Amino acid sequence: MVTLKKSLNLLAAVLFTASSVFSYAQTTTQKLENSIQEAEKSIEETLEHVEGHEIEKPAEMTQAEKVQAHITHHLADDYSFIFFSDEETGENYGFSLPVILIDNGLKIFMSSEFDFGKKVVEKDGQFYKLYHSKIYKTDAEGTITYDEAHHPTNEKPLDFSITKNVASLLFTTILMFILFLGLAKTYKNGPNNLPKGIARGLEPLVLYVRDEMAVPNIGKAKYKKFMPYLLSVFFLIFILNILGLTPLGFNVTGNISVTVCLAICTFIIVHFSANKDYWKHMFWMPGVPVPMKLMLMPIEILGAIIKPFSLMVRLFANITAGHSVVFGLIAIIFVMKEALGTGGAIGIGFFLSTFLVVLEILVAFLQAFIFTMLSSLFIGMAVAEHDHEEAH
Asked: Domains of the chain: which residue ranges?
């Protein structure tokens, strides 16, 4: 590639020298400058598309672009945790996670072999490249091909890797087991025993979910059946939201795939627990004239789909927006350093980001509360008994 670039540069120089002999003296300089600019542009375009793939230009990113790239990287899932990077050396400091691929057999290795996308990994004669947080099958040179919209067209292996989000979910699940097994052990020894340690802080939250969400929305006769799910989803979302405020780069509830799964769980529980009155009110509402029944039936069906969709979007949008704003306020330290001075930028960035992080702690609880409250409400609507008479 270097030899090709030198050859093109030499050819361009020869052409410029020959053309300058036949040009007028008073326009030689201007024409030469224009020709050089056009030739440099042509050389860059040629090099970008050599061998059918684009070569990244070593253009210097602005401070705003660096901030935006860092925010995007934090919000996205990845195959390793990066705590900080050294811009001068290009080194990233963190730890890698296991990569598990199924592609003509099982292939397991650590993501550090990719060197954060700088290297191509060869396993059993197959080559893989990490590109924009996704793994693609390539040749030995790591060639990425694109379609007209500049989207990679390389084939992807079946990926079961332990990414940041998966590791976060596993860690949270283990933590919840430890916390609740300790709380359950306390109650097992005696109903009047007081919890100790962290379990003492869990008990008020458990009672809050029971007394303020489950019982009022589902009813005393049926709420116990759904308490395991409501407690699980409440504490899962709450703990993941709190972990998202740490510098470790957790953003699980800001991932649309996770919120979709949680919403689908609620949807399944609601409709598998629903009684005949629920289905009757959806498809053939009692006490309503037949023409109105035909009009209301598609609306009710659409409403059943919209309910979990609203759960999914609300959680995803609020957490993603919160993380973006916190990072944006922290970025004031870097972006506004010249305008406000180092001390002024640090002071304003620290004050605003600290205030918002405190607010985000409230939002972390609020989003867990809203998701659990609406889930219990939807379940209560599905299992409620209705006393009515069919209108004639």
From this structure: 79-162, 166-385
